[in-house]
């Protein structure tokens, strides 16, 4: 069983324009609307790959209802704690003329003590083989939230993957989760120094492994990803593709990685498949994420090597 936790979901709103003009009206195409959030997107990917992940999240207000309908439309199995405040909105402004995007991310609603208690009880009611803890937490939740969950599941034979940033990730690492999935910038903040090249990234990953994390998967954008354990350094590089949108690529890596591990695949196979999922997502416009046929086509062309 796979459970994916997304404590701070959002409605992603994608706008497309040529170049943003300051102090002027920007006419844009009608937006794409989609459920969003790291743990939520990972569950969406796992679901479309053919598995049945259990998504746990919190939803409130009109925006929460939009997210709910989006998940139902995609047939993602989920349970949501109802909250009084409104679910947040993230706005992504794609500038086609610059080939870049601007992400405006809201902090999220403040959960009441009762809502936090209900969320914890819902998470702890499951006995998964793999648990994903994905994204930020709403204001008011402690930055030890993921750490506490990892410690709860540690003696239950559950493999926990954390995809987070800042103190939330630093504290989670103290509880020795099975895996973490930082990108370069998140890894820099975790180890507290800039990382200039691939060797620096590998060294930082080994440092985190020495802290008690079994597997560190660091996503490297168009250069794929590297997985580091106590005795292995595995690199997976995808074929060159046309990049349309990068939002959600890291979440797709997480979804593909846990999906394949749950199938009993090796670490090497799982890393290659994760990279295929992330690469298939960057080929898609807006919040569409990867499609199955493209994932398997790319998977056959991912180059895996030992460093």
UniProtKB/TrEMBL annotation:
GO MF: ATP binding; phosphofructokinase activity
GO cellular component terms given for this protein: cytosol
Domain of life: Bacteria
Keywords annotated in UniProt: ATP-binding, Kinase, Nucleotide-binding, Transferase
Domain Carbohydrate kinase PfkB span(s) in chain numbering: 12-290
A biological process term (GO) from this entry: small molecule metabolic process
Cross-referenced Gene3D superfamilies: 3.40.1190.20
PANTHER family for the chain: 1-PHOSPHOFRUCTOKINASE-RELATED, ATP-DEPENDENT 6-PHOSPHOFRUCTOKINASE ISOZYME 2
Family: Belongs to the carbohydrate kinase PfkB family.
Protein name: Fructose-1-phosphate kinase
């Amino acid at each position: 069983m796979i459970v994916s936790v997304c404590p701070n979901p959002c409605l992603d709103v994608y706008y497309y324009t040529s170049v943003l003009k300051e102090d002027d009206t920007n006419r844009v195409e009608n937006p794409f609307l989609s459920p969003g959030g790291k743990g939520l997107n990972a569950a969406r990917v796992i679901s479309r790959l053919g598995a049945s992940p259990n998504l746990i999240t919190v939803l409130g207000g009109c925006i929460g209802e939009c997210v709910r309908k989006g998940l139902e439309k995609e047939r993602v199995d989920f349970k949501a704690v109802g909250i009084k405040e409104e679910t947040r909105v993230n706005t992504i402004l794609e500038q086609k003329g610059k080939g870049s995007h601007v992400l405006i991310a809201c902090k999220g609603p403040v959960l009441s003590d009762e809502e936090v208690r209900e969320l914890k009880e819902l998470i702890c009611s499951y006995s998964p083989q793999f648990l994903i803890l994905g994204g930020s937490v709403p204001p008011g939740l402690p930055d030890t939230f993921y750490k506490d969950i990892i410690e709860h599941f540690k003696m239950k034979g559950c493999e926990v993957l954390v995809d987070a940033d800042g103190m939330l990730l630093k504290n989670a690492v103290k509880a020795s989760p099975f895996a973490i999935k930082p990108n370069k910038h998140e890894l820099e903040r975790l180890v507290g120094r800039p990382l200039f090249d691939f060797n620096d990234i590998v060294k930082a990953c080994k440092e985190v492994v020495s802290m008690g994390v079994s597997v560190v998967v660091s996503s490297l954008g168009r250069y794929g990803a590297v997985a580091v354990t106590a005795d292995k350094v595995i690199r997976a590089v995808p074929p060159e593709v046309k990049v349309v949108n990068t939002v959600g690529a890291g979440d797709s890596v997480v979804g593909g990685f846990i999906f394949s591990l749950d199938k009993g695949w090796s670490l090497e196979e799982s890393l290659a498949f994760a990279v295929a999922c992330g690469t298939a997502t960057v080929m898609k416009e807006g919040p569409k994420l990867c499609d199955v046929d493209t994932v398997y086509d790319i998977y056959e062309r991912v180059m895996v090597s030992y460093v």
